[in-house]
Amino acid sequence: MTELPDLAWTRARDFRAAPFGATTVSAPQWTALAQALAAGRVTLMSLWAEHGAVCMALHDSAARRVAVARLDGLGDGFPSVGLHHAPAQRLERAAADLFGLAPLGAEDARPWLDHGRWGILHPLGAAAPHPGHAPYPFLPVEGESLHQVPVGPVHAGIIEPGHFRFTAQGETVVRLEERLGYTHKGIDRQMQGASLARGAELAGRCSGDSTVAYSFAFAQATEAALVVKVPDRAFALRGIMAELERLANHLGDIGAICNDAAFPMMLAQTSVLREMVLRAAARAFGHRFMRDRIVPGGVTVDLDAEGVTAIRALVETIRDGFPPLVALYDTTASLLDRTVGTGHLSPDLAQRFGAGGHVGRASGRDYDTRRDLRYAPYDMLRLEVPLREDGDVNARIWLRIKEVEQSCSLITQMLNALPSGPVLAEVPPAGAARTGLGLVEGFRGDILVWLSLDPDGTIARCHMRDPSWFQWPLLEAVIEGNIIADFPLCNKSFNCSYSGHDL
Amino acid sequence: MELIIGLILQGVQMLVVLALAPGLAGLVRKVKARLMRRRGAPVVQPYRDLMRLMRKDVVLAENASWLFRVSPYMIFAATWVAAALVPTFAIGLQFSWTADLIALVALLGSARFFLALAGMDAGTSFGGLGASREMMIGALAEPAMLLMVFTVALVAGSTQLSNVVTFVASDAVGIRVSMGLALVALIIVALAENARIPVDNPATHLELTMVHEAMVLEYSGRHLAMIELAASLKLLLYMALIGCIFVPWGIAPASAGAGGLALGALSFLAKLAVGGVMLAVFETSIAKMRVFRVPDFLGAALMLGLLGTLLLFVSRSL
Asked: How far is C-alpha B247 from the geometric centre of its chain's CA atoms?
């Protein structure tokens, strides 16, 4: 076995404040890294292609440090990581679709994002005319009395498009295969050559419900690459926005999961609270979802006294109004009967896939970017990361409940120690090619942004990895052996992003 | 002359159930919305929906057979006839002597049969999924319903609903444990038959969890209107059935005059309103159960019906 290459492992406070470079590795070293991933020595954070190269972001959770390995000088392919480590498979297929760099030796060579509707092949690599739409072969399933239930991409509810192919024996799901990519918007392509301001806008439009987290991560990557000194007040305001976003989404999700068990009372109640969060955000920051409020260098709006009052009032309302809802959930036996034990995710799988957010933490993966790869303003705050081992729908609901409480506490802490001063610093010109890494805990989990800038300050390549990349495959695993009718419940308890995944 | 009045009264009953059924569905939805602090659609919304559907074109699947087109009318006809048999405001109506409770169960069973066939006809996976779940529910609900019928018939000495109403409304009945068991059994069956929470969710958008809605996903236009109307008729039928067997007070006897009939109509309206509100409250306070829990739930109804029947035999032989 080849020795592990000596990567430039960097701790959080270093890569947050300075440009972060990739370590160039050789092909055998690349494969050795893939084997290390499979052995669980490090966790895969992302895998992406660049022009003639592939990169892999790795996390060493024991030492709380990250590294990026880069394999360049590629012709048309690279040694597959997915062959050893399944979580990389879809990332590799996406890289192959966009850049034409095939994962050599991979078991699954089907396209992933490319549905044959773009007109061109490999839009980011050596673009060529597309041969056209071809039928997508789903994985074969064989056995007695199996039947298939295709669902989507257009669903009966107002949700994003995605196709789910169930193979069932009666009501029991034998296999679920997902097909995503329906909301592909070509953001990677649009990022190329874009200015930083345009890039920040695009980042905020990856996934509408995580717009704050995405623009936060993009700003972090830019600020690291260009060594921007961001004012303390801007950090605090970013933190408040990020927690408001988390509050709104978690409140909405808690209700929506119960609604999928036909208990709409909970959704009605949490929707009221969620709406209050959005209104407080609108009053404090001038936009309900706080889009385009975080930019490289700081934030675009300052928080005035009226805004502070609105947010404090909101936190009070949630502290009063939320516990009765939690009690309602915890005392409705018919609801618990649906959620407890449904959609169990084993801790092994969560660990192997590096599942972030409530999906990982409900299955014993003790990781939160805000604590483990700390960044401002969370380095100044008290944060208790909730953790559960049971890994079912109930656990994921409870994780969200605990995180709502944590977010309220964090907002209060930030408001109590709100620094004064400017909220926007000037972003210096690049001058040379630079790279930076941004890592932010969105409500779904850790969002990774890898940014490389050209000397003129435009974006050479921006890779954004949604937490859903490692959660969607787990959903396939979770539903096995459950009944078809419980899928909506499992799906909603994950609440993966389509838009952030398809980019 | 008597025959003509009888026919007129029977006609009134058939029109009344038809006219009130969508309103009952609208009332339940309205109360549920209010309980969730929503304003909710007006009570007359189901009437508007039906009119809208009647005006719309029918879209048929390419591989749909004649069965698919015929089924909505069969379902509607069977349900309507069944609803005409249940005493609502008066007993002793013309049709009630031609069919009894067992015929009623059979009529509803035929409607279910056609609905399940139509669900599978277009060949979509959801239709098949819904049909198989519906038959699983039906296979348990029907025996439970029949056992409930036996209990009532043994108490009242007749399966004829008009006779049952007369008997229960009289002083002879007293307090019967068996009737209490039968009431619970009938309520469980009614919830399952009408695709209500906790067995099915009439308001869901999740294809994978549907039972009734999954079977009718392919329907549109006037076909869908027929099925929707039949569904609300069935809800009204079950409420009228529970009302006439267990709270028969107010129903006009066969010989009643205009005043008695008016009183009967008022009490029927009151029963429907109370039933609708109770259903809405119940549905709001409970989540849907897993599909495989439904047999347990209906099994309870079956056992209650059986227990009711057995108790009667035991108490008689003592």
From this structure: 16
